[in-house]
Write a structure and sequence with these properties.
3 helices
Length: 90
């Protein structure tokens, strides 16, 4: 696994992880988590806060982290119900 050791990159990784975990508690899909992370990483890339090497490592790590279902727990603590959509009453 690619690791990040730049303190600012670690802070951004943790921020993305925390936000995605919060989104899962509100029943957002993996696609929506990916969309959020892509937007965050794009904004980070545009403001040039990290050098290109650290940015690439962060992006790679986030991609693998989001694709790994063991990275998340469901709202009720059960991974099997993590991304089940609730019926909308409309």
């Amino acid at each position: 696994m690619t690791s990040i050791d730049h303190p600012e990159a670690i802070r951004h990784f943790q921020s993305i992880c925390d936000a995605c975990q919060e989104l899962t508690t509100r029943n957002h899909s993996p696609f929506e988590l990916r969309l959020y992370a892509d937007g965050y990483l794009h904004a980070l890339r545009r403001c040039n806060r990290l050098d290109q090497k650290e940015q690439a490592k962060l992006e790679s790590l986030i991609e693998r982290w989001i694709l790994d279902p063991s990275s998340f727990i469901g709202p009720d603590g059960d991974i099997s119900t993590l991304f089940q959509q609730k019926e909308k009453g409309w």
